[in-house]
Amino acid sequence: MPSDGDVKRRTNAKRTKRKNAANDSDAARRKDRKKQSRRLREERNRRAALIFFASSLFFVAVLFLYLRKSKKQPHYHGSDTERYMRAKAVLDAARSGKTLDDTRKGGGSSSVKSMRYLDPRQLPPLPGEPSEPYSGKGRKGGFPGEGDDAWQSDAKSKPNSYFKRRGPKVDYTKHEYEYPDIMYDPPNDGTYPALEKMSTIFETWGQDDLDSPPDTLVEVLQHFDFQDQEQMEAATKYRDLELPFKVYNIPEVRAAHKKWTDEYVASHFNGENDDDAPQSRGSCQQSQDNFFAFHRPPLWSVELLGAPPSVDLEWTFDKWARHAVYADEVSLPKTEKHYYFQSGVNREERHKKWKHWTFVSRDLPSFSNPEPTFFGFNPPAQKGIQCRFGERGVTAATHYDGGRNMIAMITGAKRYVLSPPFACPQLGIVTSREHPSYRHSMLNFGRVTLLDEDDGTVEMSKREKEWLRISADAPTLSTVLKAGEVLYVPSHWFHYITSLQKSAQCNTRSGMHEEGNENFGGLEEVEDCIKDGDD
Fold first, then answer.
1. CA–CA dist 480, 478 (Å, integer)
2. Is this prediction's pTM over 0.90?
3. C-alpha distances in Å from residue 83, one per residue of 105, 206, 326, 327
4. 3-state class of 477 per DSSP?
5. Is residue 66 pLDDT above 80, yes or no?
6. CA-to-CA distance for 37 and 31, rounded, in angstroms?
């Protein structure tokens, strides 16, 4: 039997053995942790080295490209290098007789001053020439386009606050205007409104001279204060006589002007608005330059007439608005692509409950009211509300509307060039019913000032030149409609429109006035003009 001492020694030996085993285990774990930590550290170092190496290569490549570009192009000081280079490209294209797009593509000729060449087949026969039947077929769904996103790199390089600070070079909402004295009894002897030759209108202020207008723009149309009862009684007399005029100081139009920010309008087109108004719908069109002409795509034959005047894009309002801001800021040249956004409110909407009214109807109740108002004075004949959002330079070819037209400028400003119904034979109106531009003109009237150019820089067909010579003598007036104002365009008066800056305009029509004004004509004069193409 072991003694107590033996038992104690054996017990201590076992305890020591267990303790040594535990120590060995701890040492092994510490060793493993050190190895793992070393491996992780080495992995991090390798990654850091790889990132540094890749970054160095990228930096060297960027520096190489920058130095290579600097050798080929002159340096401009300041933050507008891209803008300078864009302007240089336009200038070089003009000097070489090419458009900017042709320069980018490396081919194709155009004119320095002609913008897009107008195919003579798009115009009606000259007076005395036989009618030309048209039987072309186009595209039922319209002509789709892709747009041009090259501008976005320049726009993104500047914060939104930069554009909001700069804006257009000339803000026509704040320009100097001279208005005629109020004539409370409208003269009905043909002296109002005062008309001039179209050539004189554009010689005084060129269509595309948006950055250099006359110091004071002289207005010829009566300008009535909506808050003055006596003046509005006079305005009603002018309206009843089918004479054009303007109205200002209209509470709902002023309120809409403050409300219609890009964010507010975009939210209603995107369906992200804070109120309960239904989502609005709109569409965007693109032209190769700043000139837009009406056409019916299902009848527009590219083979017979050339490229269509405009194509349809899938741009959102937000994207259109960003380009319009950009166009103002850089004074977008007339030869660059231009964009136009439009939307409509159908005639049935005003008969629905308020909750079914879109923001346009809600913000312009005098235009959407089912009861007569000064602006919508014949609701049964009203065909809804049309809204047009234009950017700097966008010019719409001349046309007429049968309905009596009230046009409200919500933001920005547009120039309206008006001609009375009896001027129809001088405006190059397409008279063939089968033609895609029937009852519209395809002429760019801004070119009337180029007729005497003989230096070979103007590309113009004989038919276009002869039509412009005829149009140059057409009786015409020019007026600027700016934010907060409403313009009355009588039935069958032709209107040719240029957006002077980013703008929003809505109009409503109150049925046809067939007789028109005895001094300026009406439906009969227009029908006599366009029926010739049906012979």
1. 7
2. no
3. 20, 24, 11, 12
4. strand
5. no
6. 10
